[in-house]
Design brief:
single chain; Aminopeptidase; Glucose Oxidase, domain 1; 14-stranded mixed beta sheet
Length: 459
């Protein structure tokens, strides 16, 4: 097995060394010509028109998680996988919407006009306020027990802040903004009542606490509404006589934002997953490939997190690379960066097997090595967290239509689709093709290329 390696060191022996993994060369030099020939087996079959038609179908109806639109998309994706003869499975998982029936935050009888967190626990509590700053783990004082924690927004997620004060026995949370942009935050975790207030209100309470105790009342009634979202998985198995025992996963998310067509975000990624499935199903391989589409990415990678959480450890141990595609068709994305702004983001900002292969493939096909950067916010996160080399392929910065009703088929570039899928397809094929028995015993290697880190914001 190989794990989390970076193909960057060339030894005098004529071998690529990647922290314990050696990639053989032919005649003392990378066999780039052989790689290109193998690339062509996959790349020449990619049809951007197929992908465009998939995007057109999926983006005709918003696919918000837990809605009929998501089900429509899932049924289409399932049907496409099944038509290819793939072993296809739908994984349902629960998600929750919240209806606020009552939200009240009072200090000395004055209503602060706060907003209850989506997912706040219901309940009424009156207690002293305790200023706990940003509620970072290890900084929450013990005297918050039985009291209401006054928390400043920033640095860590809302859920983490609530968890940290609840772990110390806090009875409620009053969280104020770190900027002047309103007081409507994200989702809590149903542990204790949690209400958001403005920055000005929070700072005033911080000052008041310096002069003595302050009593507050939180009164929250949140109704939880359970819905169902889905992950779709399709397995492509190799010939049993040539099976390396390894697994490569290729994914995208099929949900969109509420009322959003989601043509680029992320029907484009789904179209690529389906297109690669269509090609690889008729291509000799020696490694299992799992094609995945995730629901509820827009709710915080819930689908991919669910999928990874239910995997047996034996599967995780066999997974050697995860390729995630999100927003790979935006005509107006990427500004003037090379390759339309395509970049590979990793969670830790470090190179890994996926980025090495991506840079090598793009260099062979387009004479430009795709750069890498650091970013979460997509479904490569859960795979990285369990030790699987992972990267997000995306055009960055994103287009003006991002998360808007204008994210429609008219703003999709077939050229960018072709380009991104060619690079991801060639990269994945480098692992799954039969002449690379398990990569660590390969006779044909990707060329070692220089590719740079870019601190490029996605939006």
């Amino acid at each position: 097995m190989f794990r989390r390696k970076s193909i960057i060191t060339v030894l005098a022996t004529g071998m690529f060394l990647s922290t314990g993994v050696v990639y053989a060369q032919t005649n003392g030099a990378p066999n780039v010509q052989a790689d290109t020939a193998f690339d062509n087996k996959v790349i020449k079959k990619i049809n951007a028109e197929n992908m465009y038609n998939t995007i057109k179908y999926l983006s005709a109806v918003p696919r918000e998680a837990g809605t009929e639109g998501e089900v429509r998309g899932v049924e289409y994706i399932e049907g496409q996988f099944k038509s290819l003869g793939l072993e296809t499975r739908r994984f349902p998982f629960p998600i929750y919407d919240y209806k606020t029936n009552r939200e009240l935050a009072e200090v000395d009888g004055v209503d602060l006009k706060g907003h209850a967190f989506s997912g706040s626990a219901s309940g009424k509590v009156t207690a002293e306020l305790v200023n706990v700053g940003k509620a970072i783990a290890g900084t929450v004082p013990d005297d918050v027990k039985g009291k209401i924690a006054l928390v400043e927004r920033g640095e860590i997620t809302f859920v983490e802040k609530v968890k940290n004060v609840a772990a110390k026995g806090a009875a409620g949370v009053l969280m104020y903004n770190s900027s002047s942009n309103g007081n409507n935050f994200g989702q809590a975790n149903e542990e204790i009542p949690a209400v958001a207030i403005t920055q000005a209100q929070g700072k005033e309470l911080v000052d008041r606490l310096k002069n003595g105790p302050v009593e507050a009342t939180l009164d929250v009634d949140i109704e939880r509404i359970e819905k169902t979202s889905y992950v779709v998985e399709a397995k492509l198995k190799p010939n049993k006589n040539k099976d390396t025992g390894q697994i490569v996963t290729i994914g995208a998310h099929h949900d969109s934002v509420p009322n959003g067509p989601g043509a680029n975000d992320d029907a484009s990624g789904v179209s690529a997953v389906l297109e690669l499935a269509r090609i690889l199903v008729n291509t000799p391989i020696d490694t299992e490939v799992r094609f995945l589409t995730f629901g509820s990415e827009e709710r915080g990678m819930m689908g991919s997190s669910f999928y990874v959480s239910q995997l047996p450890q034996s599967d995780i141990d066999r997974m050697v690379a995860h390729f995630q595609m999100d927003m790979i068709g935006g005509a107006e994305a990427g500004e003037d960066h090379p390759l339309g702004g395509l970049i590979m983001y990793t969670i830790d900002g470090q190179k890994n097997l996926v980025t090495d292969l991506g840079a090598s493939a793009s260099s062979r096909m387009y004479d430009v090595a795709v750069p890498y950067g650091q970013l979460g916010r997509s479904d490569h996160q859960p795979f990285h967290d369990v030790g699987i080399p992972s990267a997000l392929f995306i055009h960055s910065p994103v287009e003006p239509q991002y998360h808007k009703p204008t994210d429609t088929i008219e703003h999709i570039s077939k050229e960018k689709l072709q380009q991104a899928v060619s690079i991801v397809g060639a990269s994945a094929y480098q692992i799954v093709r039969p002449d690379t028995p398990a990569l660590d015993r390969a006779h044909v290697s990707p060329a070692s290329v220089e590719y740079k880190f870019e601190d490029r914001p996605v939006d």
